[in-house]
Amino acid sequence: MRTGGRDAVVLDRDGLDGLIVLLAARGRTVIGPTVRDGAIVLAEISAGGDLPYGWGVDLEAGRYRLRPRTDGAAFAHSAGPQSWKTFLHPQRERQWTARTGPDGVPLVTEDDTPPPSYAFLGVRPCDLRAIQVQDRVLTDGPHTDPRYRRRRERAFLVVVECTEPGATCFCVSMGTGPAADRGYDLALTEVVDDGGHRFLARSASDEGSAVLAELPTRPADDGLRAAAREGVAQAAGRMGRAMPDVDLRVLMHETLTADRWNDVTARCLTCGNCTMVCPTCFCTTAEDVTDLTGEHTERWRRWESCYDLEFTHLQNGPVRASALSRYRQWATHKLGTWYDQFGSSGCVGCGRCIVWCPTGIDITEEAHALNQERAEARQAAS
Amino acid sequence: MNAPAVAAGPSARPAGPPLPYRVEARTVDAPDVATIVLEPAGEALPRFAPGQFAMVYAFGAGDIPLSVSSIEGDRLTHTVRAVGAISRALHGTRTGRTVGVRGPFGTGWGLGASVGRDLLVVAGGIGLAPLRPVVRGALAAPGRYGRLNVLIGARTPGDRLYAHETNNWREAGARVLTTVDRPDGGWTGDVGVVTTLLDRAVFDPPHTTAFVCGPEVMIRAAARELTHRGLGPDRIEVSLERTMHCGTGHCGHCQLGPVLLCRDGPVLDWARAERLVSVPEL
C-alpha cells in the first residue's frame, strides 16, 4: 500500500463525483459500480449519484443480498456478479466478416472497430490482479488477441483498495489484496470517520497525475494516511475465508484421483455459473453466422464454459463426460495448471464462485478437504 | 487472383482472419477421407513444419484444426475425415474453390533431433496424415537416419491412406507394414492392432525415435509397448488431439492438464504425455 507516496492527496466526495465527470469529459466511457436489480453491477456511470453510496452486501455461499449502510460509503461492498472482463473480454464479439468476392474468393475483413476508451472506477485489488491474469492469457503468449489488447491498452484504471471484505473473500490467502501496489492509474482508499467522508488518492501514471491535477484536492495529512492504512489492514484481518496454507499447485497435482471429487460432484449442477462470474475465466467458442443468401458470413466468439459437454467434444463424444471431470478441470485449472499454462494462479480470491454457485460449493472448502484427504493418505502410508 | 483478399490488418498474423487458399487438387483416399491440396490465392502463411497444424476454414461453416500431410513450398496438403459439419464441408470442397487457412500452429515432430537414429513411425487410421511428412522427409535424406519402419493400422483394407504412396516408400527402402482391424475377402495381409507389427519392425530400441499418432487408446498401447521394448520415454513422440476453436491459445478448449495442446502440442514426448492420457477424462 502506497498511502505515503509524495503525491498522496485527499479527494472529498465532491472530488470523487468530479472525477467521474472529468474522465467522461476526457472522452472516456466511465464504468463503475451502481445499484441495479438488487445487486451492485458494473455499468456506465455519468455522475457521482450513480455510485452505490450507502450500500453494502451480505455474502455467503449461494447467497447475495444488498444491505443499507449508515456510513454512506461508496465502496464498502465486495465483488458483485460481474467483473471487468465483461468490458475487456466481452461476452460476444465479432472477429471478422467475409463475403463472396467477384471471382468467388471470399473477401475477409477483420473487425477493427475502435473500442471505447474505458475508465474503470472502483477496481478492487483482487480484480486488478484478475485483469493482469487475463493480460497474461490473452496478450503474453505466442499470439495476441488484438481486440483485447486495444481495449486494455486504452483503459484507465482507478483502483479502490478494499476496506470491507465479504464473508466469501479470501484475497489475503491468494496474495492479491486487500491493498493495491501497482498496475493502476489512480488508487483510492475510502475513509469515513469523524473527519468526514473522503478518499486518499495517489497516482501511478502520467495520465493519473494529470487527472488528479485537474481535481480539487488537498495534501494528505498523516492522520488520514494512518486511517487509510488502518482500514486496509483491518480488512486483511477480516477475510471471511482462506485457502489452506500449502502449495495449491502441488495439492491439485497430487489429488487428481481423490475421493473428494465424488463428494463435490454430488453437489455440482455443472451449470457453469462459477465460470461466468469468475474474473479470470477466459474460455470462448467460435461461431459462424451466415445470412440467408449464404454470401455473407460473420465469425463471432462468445464466452464458453468448461462445464458444457460440447466444450471437449471430439468424434466419439465429450472427453470430459462426467460431472466429476468437469468440476475437477475447473478447480485444478484455477488453482494448479494455470501456473503451468500462464505462469500464475488463475484464482484471485474474490469469492464470486462461492456466492453465485446455486448449491453453495466453496472452492476454499474443497481445497481444505483435498488437503486433508492427502494428509490422511500420507499418514496411512507412513 | 493476386489482389489482396484481406482488407484490413496484417493478414499473416495467426490470431487474425484466415488467408484464402485455393483447392488445387482433391483426391478421395477412403470412403470418408479426402486429401486436399491448397495453394495460396494471395499472400502465403509462414512455412509449416511436419507435425504442426492449420486452422482450416470452410466459408460460413467454421474452422477446424488439420495437420499438414504434405508441405511443398507454399503449398499445403491436408487429409480430412468427414465426421462433423465443418470437416464434411472441407471434405467435400471441390477443386477450384477457396478455403481459409490460419497457422502454422503448435509443435512439430522432432526429426531434427533424430539424425543417425532408427525411425519408427506408428500410425493408426487418419493418424498417418501428420506422419506422412516424417516419412517423406526421412526418405528424402538418405543416410541421414538409420532404419525407417512405418507401421500402419487401418480399420479395413479400403480405409488405408496413401496406398499407392506407401508402396513407393517400401521401394525407397522403408520397412512398411500394414494391418487392418476387419479384413475383407481379398485381404491376405495382417489382421489386428498396429502394435502386433512391432515384432517384425527392425530397430535398435536405445537408438530409435518413435513417432506415434492415431486414436488415443492406440497411442497409449503403442507407447507403453515401446517403453517395454527399451525406448526412452523422451524418444517416443506422440501427437494428441483435443477440441480447438482458435489455435492461438486463447479459447481454452484444448487444455490437457497443464498443457495447451495448440501451443505446447500437438506433438509431446511420452515422458510428458503419459500421465496426461492416463488420468481418465483429464
From TrEMBL, chain A:
It holds the Pfam family Fer4_22. Residues 257-289, 338-366 form the 4Fe-4S ferredoxin-type domain. It comes from the Bacteria. Coiled coil: none annotated. Keywords: Iron, Iron-sulfur, Metal-binding. GO terms for molecular function: iron-sulfur cluster binding; metal ion binding. InterPro entries: 4Fe4S_Fe-S-bd, 4Fe4S_Fe_S_CS. This is 4Fe-4S ferredoxin. It comes from Streptomyces sulfonofaciens.
Automatic annotation (TrEMBL), chain B:
SUPFAM superfamilies: Ferredoxin reductase-like, C-terminal NADP-linked domain, Riboflavin synthase domain-like. Signal peptide: none annotated. Binds 1 [2Fe-2S] cluster per subunit. GO terms for molecular function: 2 iron, 2 sulfur cluster binding; flavin adenine dinucleotide binding; metal ion binding; oxidoreductase activity. It holds the Pfam family DHODB_Fe-S_bind. The keyword Plastid does not apply. The keyword Manganese does not apply. Residues 16-111 form the FAD-binding FR-type domain. Keywords: 2Fe-2S, Iron, Iron-sulfur, Metal-binding. Its cofactor is [2Fe-2S] cluster. GO terms for biological process: pyrimidine nucleotide biosynthetic process. [2Fe-2S] cluster binds at C246, C251, C254, C262. This is Oxidoreductase. It comes from Streptomyces sulfonofaciens.
